[in-house]
Amino acid sequence: MKKFVQIMAVALVAVMALGVLVACGYSDDPDKAAEQLEKKGYETHVTKNPSGNADVVAVVMASKSNFDLEDIFEVDVEDIVIEFVVITYFKSADLAKESMDAAKENLDSDAQGVKVSLQGSKIVVTYKLTGADAL
To answer: What are the CA-CA distances from residue 39 to residues 13, 33, 43, 44, 104 (Å)?
Structure first.
């Protein structure tokens, strides 16, 4: 009986962890993803059916910084933080995976602060610049 309770406890933790991972992802709807990012303080732009790539359904671009542009000359350079998020929506998960593989090959290994993840039929790229790198 003790072994059964341990197994059930581990199974419950695994299910809860999966639920947290799913909740942290961006929406499969580009407009809803942009809305989520706006609630977090990002300025967003959604491009649907971008020309030049028939495999891409939409692209969400978002950015935020810790200063107003008109105050840029009053901010200490070392305090500057700029964050970018780019979500590319593909027609299928297979197309997203192919593009992800190509992106990994082309990603500069020296790129600091860049995170690329595959989430179903979308690729999410996050990039954070701080200090002098942000300028």
So the answer is: 29, 10, 10, 10, 30
